[in-house]
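Thread: Modeling a multi-component assembly for a lab meeting

Hi all, long-time lurker, first post. My supervisor asked me to bring a structural picture of a complex we are working on to next week's group meeting, and I have zero experience with this. I have the sequence lines for every component (659 residues in total). Could someone generate the structure of the whole assembly? Inputs are pasted exactly as I received them:
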Amino acid sequence: MSDLNVQLKNGAGIQLQSPVTVGEALKRLDRDAAKQALAARVNGRDVDLNFQLEAANSNGHIEIEPVLPQTQEGLGLLRHSTAHLLAAAVLDLFPGTKLGIGPPLLDDPRYGFYYDVIAPRPLTEADLPVIEKRMREIGKRNLAYRRDEIPKEEALRIFDEREEPLKRELIEEKGGDVVSVYYIDGTPFVDFCVGPHVTNSNRLRAFKLLTIAGAYWKGDPERPQMQRIYGTAFFNQEELDAWTKQREEAEKRDHRRLGRELDLFSIQDEYGQGLILWHPKGGMIRKQMEDYLREELLNHNYSFVYTPHIAKRELWQVSGHEQNYGDSMFSPTVLEDVEFRLKPMNCPFHIGIYKAQQRSYRDLPQRYSEMGTVYRAELSGTLHGLMRVRGFTVDDAHIFCRPDQVQTEIGDCLDFAYKVFRTYGFDKIKIELSVKGDDTTKNYLGRDEDWRSAEAALAEALDERGIGYERVEGEAAFYGPKIDIKIEDAIGRMWQLGTVQLDFNLPERFGLEYIGDDNKPHRPVMIHRALFGSIERFFGVLIEHYAGAFPMWLAPVQVAVLPITDRVNEYAERVARELRAAKLRVEVNTRGEKIGAKIRDAQLQKIPFMLVLGDREMEEGTLAVRERSRGDIGAMSLAQFREMARGLVETRAGANVAL
RNA sequence: GCCCGCGUAGCUCAGUGGUAGAGCGCCUCCUUGGUAAGGAGGAGGUCAUGAGUUCAAAUCUCAUCGCGGGCUCCA
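Re: Modeling a multi-component assembly
Sure thing. I ran the full set together rather than chain by chain. Output:
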C-alpha cells in the first residue's frame, strides 16, 4: 500500500509507503539531488534529511524541495552546522564551557559563522588551531546530527543539568510548548536550535577558524562578556582557498597599510587617537576631491559658507544636540565664565546663516554647503584608521526650502550623488529609504501627515528616476525620514556613505520662518545632505577601492620621469618643466640607480605614468611611455603625451583601471 | 568603555634572564646601467612608558598608554 503521494518541486512524482524519510524519498525521485542535498523543504517547512514523512498531517500530499549546495540557503545551513561542530569541539576540549548562540553569517564576507562561549579560562588565538584540529577529528568520525523534539520542561531540565544558563534563558524566551534540540552523537554537545542541519558530520570538510573576539551576551554591555569564535566554511576546499585568497587581497588593500606605504596620512599617539595628519600626497588627493566637489556644488547652485569649530554651549542646548547627542560631544571649555563646546555637526551654524535675515518664499531654496570639520568623542575601542575617527570633515550641506520644493530638491541631491559616485567608479549604488516605524519609544517628532507627505516626496523623487530602493521601517531618525546611499567597492564590499535627511526638528527648535505669498510666516523644511559623509572616511574607502592606484586625476604624482643615465638628466628636467606647465604633477628620479630600480620605485608608488628617457629619446625628442598597469606602451612625442595625460585628467577618466 | 592579543631601528620582523640583530628604507662612495631590486661602506634603538622581582630584565610580574580583532555605539 502506498499512502504518500510525493512530488519533487518542479519535478517527478512518486507513490511511497510511510514510514519513509525525506532523504529516502528524495533518493527515489532524483538520485543526483539526493546525493547533494543538505536538507529539504517539505510542504514549505525546512527539515533535516532524516525527517519522517507522514500521511497524517499532509493529506498524503507531500512536496519536497532539496536544499542544495551552491545556494545561499545551503551555505547558511552548512555554516550553521559547522558552528555546532565548533561548539562540540570546544565542549570536548574545555568541559564546563557555557554556550551562547552560534549562527551562520552570510552578509559579512569576512566571516562565515561564530559561536559565543564562556570557557573556564579565557581562550586566545593560540587555541584556535587546537580547536580546529578537534573539529576535524570529530567531523571524520561520521557522527550523526540528531534532532529531537521534546517538551519545553524537559529541555529546560536538560540544560539545567548541563549548567547552561544562557540556553535556559533562550528557551524560556523563544521556546513554545515543544522545542527542538540538536545533538551530535558521540560528543557532549546539545543545542536548542530549530535547524535544519546536515545529518552527518562528514559533510563538513572545508572550514577554518579565523579569530576570537569579545562579545556581550545579547549585545548588552550590562550582560556577561563572552568570547566569540569566528570561522568560515564552504562546500569544498577550492572555494575555501578562493575565499582565503580574496581575503588576502582585501588585506593588501587595507587603507592603513597603504596610507603608510604611499605616505598619504598618519595617526600619531602624540597628537591623539582618531586624529588624522594628512601628508602632502594625501593632501593632494583631498584637494582634488574637494575641487571636484565644489565644481559640482556650483553646477547645482549651492552657495558656500564657512563656520567656526566651536560655539557657545547654549547653542547646543537650543539645538538639542546636548540632550540627544551629548555623550558624543567633547566636554565644555570655559572662557570668561562662558562655556563653549566643539561642534559635532554643522547644522546649527547654517541655521544661524538662514536666520541672519528675514526670508521670503522667493528666496527659497537656500542651499548652504561647507566642508565642515566636526569633532566627536568616539570611544577609543571604536576608532579605526580613517573609517572611524574623532575629528573629521563632512561634505555638508543644508537646504532650506518650501514644502512644495522638497521633491525637486531631494531629486537634485540624488542626481548629484549618482553623478559624483559614478565618477569615482562606484557603479553599484544601493538606496535605503528609512521611514517611521511603530515603535513609540522613539519619540518621533512632527505630525503624522508631515511624515506621510515627506515620505511620499522622497519616494516620488526616487521613482521619478527609476531608482530602486529598499524601504526600511523604523530606521528613520526621530526628527524625520531619510535616504541612505550605500556603494559597492571594487571587491564587492558595501559602504554606507551619503545620506539625505528631512528634519522636522531643528526648524521648530530655532523657530525658522519665511514669509509666504500670503504675507504670513511659514516654517521652512530643512534637508541635511552629505555625499561622502566624512571626507576622511571616503578617502579610506577610495584607497581600498583603488587599492592605492588612484586614477590619473586623483594621483598625487601623475608622472614619474626616469632618466636612464645622467647624460639625459637635463632633458628629463626639461620634459618635467613642460608637463608641469600643463598642470601635471611630475617627479624626476635622478637617483644613481639602474632604470629597472627606478621603474620599480614608481610602480610601488602606483604612479600612473612613467617616462623612460635615454639617449635615443633625447636625440629624437621623444618619450618612452610606460603605464602602471599596462607596461611599456611605446614612444610618443611630448605634445602627444601631454594631450593624452591632460585628457585623462580633465575627463576624470580611469576610475575603473585599478587592479 | 568592555574582552582577547600585540608593542624591539623609518617599515617588516628575529631575538625567552647574561655586551641589541636581519632584510628593506636612509646617507656616502663606486657603477651610467634600456622597462619591477647593480656593488661597497656608514648612520640609526633609554627594546612603548612607569614600577617591581633578580647579582643581572627586551625577556618574568603589575600598572599605564597605544595599536589590532571584535562587542557596544553610530544624528
